[in-house]
Input
Amino acid sequence: MRRIGRSLAAATVLLAATASAEVEFYQTVDRQKVGTEDTFHLTIVVGDAPEGATVQFPAPNDFEVLQRSQSTQMSYSLGTGNQGVIKRVQKYTLTMRANRPGKLTIPPAALATAQKTYKTDAITMEVVKGRTQADAPPPSSGRPPGFVDPFQGFFGDDDPFAGMPQLPHIPDPDVPRSESDLFLRATIDKDTVYAGEQLNLTLHIYSRVELSSVDAVTMPKLEGFLSEDLDSPTQLAPEQRIINGVPYRSYLLRRRALFALKPGTLTIGAAEADITTGMFFQGHRVHRKGNPLTVTVKPLPKEAAGFVVGRWRIAAEASQTTVQVGTPIQVRVAIEGRGHLKSAVMPKLTGPAALRIYEPTTTDKTVITHGTLGGRRVQEYVVLPQQTGTFVMPGLNLQFFNPETGRIEESKTDPITLTVTPGAGGANFAATPSPGAPAEGPKNRLEAGGLKQLRHTAQFGEASRPLWQRAWFLPFAAGPFALTLIFGAFGLARRVAGATDPASEKRRKARAARARLAAAEKLKRSGKTQDFYSEVEKALYGFLEARLGEPAAGLTRDQLDKKMTDAGVSEAVRTGVKSALDTCDMGRFAPGMGDAHARASALDEAAAAMEAWDAK
Amino acid sequence: MTLGLFAALLLAQQPSYYTPEEAQALFREGNDAFYKDPPDYAAAKAAYLKLLEHGHDGADVLFNLGTACLANGELGPAVLYLERARKLRRADDIEANLSIARARQGDQLVGGAAVSEPFLERVADATDDDAVSIVSLASLWLTFALVVLFRRLLPGRRTWVAFLLVMSIITAAVSTTLVGIDAWFATHYVEGVVMPDTARVREFPGDTARVAFEVHAGLKVRILEESGKFVRIRLTNNLEGWTEREGVVPL
Output
């Protein structure tokens, strides 16, 4: 009882507020100046219209109404004295087009209520022949002002979006018996498609009751499809529909573009939504489940395997066709069309080795036109001419499967011919710049890195083995060691065998004497005078002992002379030997014999005596 | 001994398959096939191979053959012949084409201790075999001669001979050691080149053994040992395994 009372009070407040509100009624256009081929929008706004009020739209003879849509917005606010105020605004949008040029007038719209008829102001339009849309700046060119796009008119007149149907009409849905006041319906625009072809899934609420909000929408799992969102309204916009003679308001919830990934029969599950009906405090929440759908997906022909599906065109253009060597140019390759842009594979720009083609930068822009997904992909290549001459970059060929015709179609570009002229100073080759930083002006470049040239003449011969592998090498290398060993062994044997031989003993002693003389030579420059002469004397006596066969030390000069005479030594040699011995005696005991000259003389005298003996 | 010498003389005087003029003409024929438009690499290879088959060997023929194989995309034979040419005579053009072949080779050797060749191998690689052999022989005989001279001279007159003797002994020791290193590597260090596009390397010499890894044409490997139809190979990063003998051709 308390609840009913509260509702009545609220309704009273609302009625009072509505009755006290002023009617708002006007019309506007989005543009004052249009062309005869342009469309524009006339918006008629009705705020707080009383119950039963009807809107009479203007019916100008000079304009054609192409489309009409309606939306309603309601707002609630606290007015003076904390009194609730509800404002209901209805907007009617008419898409119109002028029939002739000139200054034309859109007549006033009228709002007829029980009390009076409201009228809007008339609107005067300036209509010119043709189109004025081109005069307007592009919505998003992405280029700084003043930048002249060298690729204007890039694609010819073959517009892949041309002739595309408007959004498909949604057929009347089947009304469920149990939930006829409020139900959820999903529809698809095609139930048979090719794999990769677009179909649109649309989800609507149909209602005969007032809706407050749609709290949650659960879309079905779209297994086997690629899905792209086309429309997800944030506000409910009702549209009047008469279904089986019963008026409904339909509200668009979602519109998705689907691309089947594989052939077969695919099922789209039922969507679900939580909806709040009624107004404000009286609303209550209901859950609705939609309908499942079935799609038959046809396979692509075998020849079309791997091709992008849709309708596409390709274009290629170079920023310059005559360029100096070493000056980079830009080549832009673009594809545009309807279909799933992300699945599209672009052909790669190629060219002769004289043109260095760097990896392109890729830009994708998705476009939704009349509910059809498409877009444009642009690849920009930097091409650096390396040599002078005329070079051709072959035309590009894009093949695709057009589901509308059921055939493989192709779009081609013309080959790009690039004339490369010599750089400054007549250079015919270009220096290699880094990919990110094109060369500053033409420069010479002699590119290395290829295979080295063949040898033009040959020297033939069997592959020679290294010397150490030859058979003679090892014996030849071992020769010195072997000979050393042989001589060493021979000497040793001779020494052993000659140990008791008097002649050998004599030779050994003679060698020892000579060695002693060599030792005396080392003392020649030392300060030890006595030691030097003693050593020379010992060498002489040793030599005499070796040659006479008996010790000579201790003999007088006469005894020595007699022994030498007996041994057959000549007079001159005997004199020399005795003189050398006398020199040694003098050197040891007489002053003045210590200087270097005297020592050298003594040494030479002793050596001369020995050599004279051996030479006899 | 006399018979052997006679046979060797006979062999040396046997006429070769091609006269020098014919061999040179065949060589030019191969070059012309290589440089004609479009190139006929197969014909160029056939001409060079004919020369090799009939004993007209040499670094020039091997280099051109390796280069023709490289231009024709046959990486295994290209590396084989270029490496053989390099063994005969080192030259810049051989090194350049070999580096191109290595750059095209499909195996990237990662990790392992021997990222670079061992020191002794590098020494052997950098040594001119014939030059060190000659220096070794000359210094050995010079040393012997100086020893004899040293012994014959009187003790006071041996100083310069002693100096030369020391120098000669050092030279002989170093050069003979280098010859020894070369000989050891030549007999114990056999290298080969992988010829097929892909060769499976197994953990054990057998067809059913697990495949450890794969190597690709043009990879230079060391051949360690043989077992049946398999050879054990070692990569420069010390990775080892067994692969079929016919897939690896020794240098």
